[in-house]
């Protein structure tokens, strides 16, 4: 494994005059000519053109870019240029096609040696001219956001024009709750409403009803469509408590799968559904860096879709195929403080509530043993926050976390009687007991990254599971019962007061990388297809592989995720 890393540094300043663009561009160009240290950090000398539009070719001149691009990349206004956008890459010259969604902002070249001082690029469409407004531009316009002050999870109504008759890939973007050492990037301080949390209530060309997402804070709100970005309106976001988000880490996470000894007696296909790291308020940035071979679909139902089309084998010939994809993932520490007296009653009509308290194939919250245990633990306590803490404290006091993994077919409910289990058992049972009490909760699957100086990447990785529960007016609260119980773990930073039991109820470090939040019910594409489900893995989904109804034999190996770099 190789370590190629840098610091994500994203800003999107909204400069509105060509004169200002010229001044800033000249200042940044001079600043970027500072002497390079021995690490050959990339240096941008000039951008041509400094003002352009989508489809133009941007030429970046400088030094120390590297002879080959490999995993290096160019960022414009916080958006990374995808592999297809590079025309030329040499040690002193880069040519890229300006993408369709380009915004005004800083341009950086990032290599394994570091990040360049930025240059500035301006989108010509955003530079004002002295002329009457063109009403045919179709840029979204926000007239009002009402109410102007509301709690997290509340519905606000946005009125205006040019939102589009259907939402599609458009979004409503809020100011994010980022504090402390979160980032200097402007993009680090914005968060879109979350479709997976059912934040969007309705969408029309002139009106949007949307819930304030988990992780939002007081500040500006705007609408983003494929036509562009609207102006902003101020929204004061209230919360039942305090959520601190800071100290981000970015990982390059790689996944490999091998399909071997494929032997088909007739035409058929094999479909792989590779889990992608999931976007959330504590993990806001996920981008696929490389994918070989080119996927059929890069992102569908939080999965990368690959498909092998097979013809009838001749003379018992077989072949194998390797699939590899890497993701750049940024996660943050999250610490919460909540006064139980501020807890609001649940809106039980919300889709989020109904979905997050119902039993499913993974969380058997209706099981009688689970229900009885949960009720016995909380007694007469009715406050959901205090109930969640009571279940957490009970599990820490009465159950022991095992150092290794239990067999894949083990039942997490065995923890009730056996009193010992692994991190998977702890997360699933904790979630089940909270749901049985009517508290919206999710199990989370992913990986846990620990420092390891003996490894090439400097870290070690293991599959891991934890939980989240929802408090109305506040948002999702992380809980890692296994780590709170004392599961062996090396942290990059000291836990406050070395009190892991208190810390992992309501807080999470930046060493958790999530692939799933809750159960992902993947629908079978073929009625008679043969499906493969992988239990107790780094992601929760019902189908990982599906073979066509034709006769086919093959073997597959899914390697656990690895971290190639950290920065």
Measure the end-to-end span. Answer: 15 Å
- Please write the CATH class name of the largest domain: Alpha Beta
Structural domain count: 4
How much of the sequence is in beta strands? Answer: 35-45%
Low-confidence stretches: 1-37, 128-136, 180-186
C-alpha-based Rg, rounded: 25 Å
Query: Helical proportion?
Result: 10-25%
Name of the CATH architecture of the largest domain: Roll
Give me the oligomer status: single chain
Describe this structure in words.
This protein is mostly beta strands. Strands 2, 4, 5, 8, 9 and 10 form a six-stranded mixed beta sheet that branches. Strands 12, 14, 15, 18, 19 and 20 form a six-stranded mixed beta sheet that branches. It is globular. The model is unreliable at 1-37, 128-136 and 180-186 (pLDDT under 50). Helix content is 13%, strand content 39%. Helix 3 (368-378) packs across helix 6 and helix 4 (384-398) packs antiparallel against helix 6. This is Transglutaminase domain-containing protein. Residues 415-483 form the Transglutaminase-like domain. Pfam families: TIG (PF01833), Transglut_core (PF01841). It comes from Treponema saccharophilum DSM 2985.
């Amino acid at each position: 494994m190789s370590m190629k890393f840098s610091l994500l540094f994203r800003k999107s300043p909204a400069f509105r005059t060509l004169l200002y663009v010229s001044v800033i561009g000249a200042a940044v160009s001079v600043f970027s000519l500072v002497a390079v240290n021995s690490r050959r950090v990339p240096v941008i000398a000039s951008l041509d053109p400094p003002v352009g539009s989508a489809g133009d070719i941007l030429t970046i001149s400088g030094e120390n870019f590297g002879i080959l691009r490999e995993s290096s990349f160019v960022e414009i206004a916080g958006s990374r240029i995808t592999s297809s956008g590079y025309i030329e890459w040499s040690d002193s010259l880069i040519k890229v096609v300006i993408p369709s969604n380009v915004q005004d902002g800083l341009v950086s070249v990032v290599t394994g040696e570091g990040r360049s001082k930025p240059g500035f690029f301006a989108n010509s469409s955003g530079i004002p001219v002295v002329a009457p407004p063109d009403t045919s531009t179709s840029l979204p316009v926000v007239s009002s956001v009402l109410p102007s002050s509301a709690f997290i999870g509340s519905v606000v109504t946005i009125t205006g024009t040019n939102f589009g008759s259907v939402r599609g890939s458009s979004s409503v973007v809020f100011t994010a709750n980022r504090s402390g050492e979160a980032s200097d990037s402007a993009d680090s301080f914005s968060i879109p409403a979350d479709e997976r949390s059912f934040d969007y209530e309705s969408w029309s060309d002139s009106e949007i009803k949307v819930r304030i997402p988990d992780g939002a804070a007081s500040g500006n709100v705007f609408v983003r469509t494929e036509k562009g970005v609207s102006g902003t309106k101020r929204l004061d976001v209230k919360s039942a408590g305090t959520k601190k988000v800071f100290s981000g880490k970015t990982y390059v996470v790689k996944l490999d799968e091998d399909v071997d000894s494929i032997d088909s007696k007739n035409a058929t296909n094999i479909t792989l559904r590779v889990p992608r790291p999931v976007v959330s308020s504590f993990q806001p940035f996920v981008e696929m860096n490389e994918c070989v071979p080119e996927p059929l679909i890069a992102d569908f139902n939080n999965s990368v879709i690959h498909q092998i089309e097979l013809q009838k084998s001749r003379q018992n010939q077989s072949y194998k195929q390797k699939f590899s994809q890497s993701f750049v993932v940024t996660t943050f520490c999250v610490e919460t403080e909540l006064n139980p007296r501020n807890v609001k009653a649940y809106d039980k009509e919300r889709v989020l509530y109904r979905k997050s308290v119902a039993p499913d194939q993974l969380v058997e919250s209706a099981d009688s043993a689970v229900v009885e245990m949960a009720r016995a633990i909380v007694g007469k306590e009715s406050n959901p926050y205090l109930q969640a803490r009571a279940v957490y404290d009970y599990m820490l006091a009465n159950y022991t976390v095992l150092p290794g993994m239990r067999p894949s077919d083990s039942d997490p409910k065995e923890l009730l009687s056996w009193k010992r289990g692994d991190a998977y058992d702890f997360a699933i049972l904790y979630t089940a007991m909270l749901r049985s009490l009517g508290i919206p909760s999710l199990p989370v699957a992913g990986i846990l990254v620990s420092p390891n100086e003996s490894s090439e990447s400097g870290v070690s990785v293991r599959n891991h599971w934890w939980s989240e529960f929802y408090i109305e007016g506040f948002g999702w609260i992380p809980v890692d019962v296994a780590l709170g119980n004392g599961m062996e773990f090396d942290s990059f930073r000291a836990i406050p007061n070395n009190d892991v039991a208190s810390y992992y109820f309501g807080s999470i470090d930046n060493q958790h990388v999530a692939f799933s939040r809750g159960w992902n019910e993947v629908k079978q594409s073929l009625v008679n297809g043969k499906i493969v489900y992988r239990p107790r893995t780094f992601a929760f989904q019902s189908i990982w592989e599906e073979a066509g109804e034709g006769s086919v034999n093959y073997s597959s190996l899914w390697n656990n995720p690895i971290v190639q770099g950290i920065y």
